[in-house]
Amino acid sequence: MRRFSKKNILPILIGTFSSYALSYLILGNHRFFPIDDPFEFSITNLGLCILLGSLCGVFISLYMYLIPTMGQLAKTININPQFRPLIPAIILFLLSPMLPHLLGISLGSISLALAGKLSLSLLIILCLSKIILTPLCLGFGFFGGVFGPALFIGSMLGGAMDVTFSHGGHLFLAIGAATMIASTIGAPFASVLIIFELTGNHMIALFSIISILIAYSISNRLIGKSIFDYQLKKRGIQLS
How much is the pTM? Predict the structure, then answer.
């Protein structure tokens, strides 16, 4: 909420370090994206980061636009609110035999993409499907967040670029995940730190700055600073 006072930040810091200490004691020094591949700061990678940032900016703007739009669409349908979730549930049920990766927050699918076990066509289909189905589920009454789906969308898009240009690398998968998160929650600098902590790779964090700034500039101009700002704007609440 952009309130950086001691009263607001202190509980967050306590919760953050407490949860990290507990997970470290139980699981050890683990990372969600353990990427140790060396990457060169080349003109080619720089250009691909610019391309990825531009694609992420368009995709995340569409994603944020559809979330409240689907909610408005649900209200126009003459169906009892308690039965509205059945519509996306039936759609997911029909798609699940072909695309089980779309169910839940899909962390397993991200791991498969990280291992290079998903084809280019499947990565693109999963990326586009998640952009549509997540707003549909949220708009029609499912309870869930926007962080996990944004992570999934960015990973699939970045994974598609890895398959196309890197031939087995994982640079753009991690950058895509960070870029989509940054634009969704409106935290570009925090997302750079998040992806550095998730991967432990400083080159990925460095490249992600380029992609994040481009995508955030596009989504900020088209939609707003974050999905939360956009939802408040749609309700007639303007934040200074």
Answer: 0.84
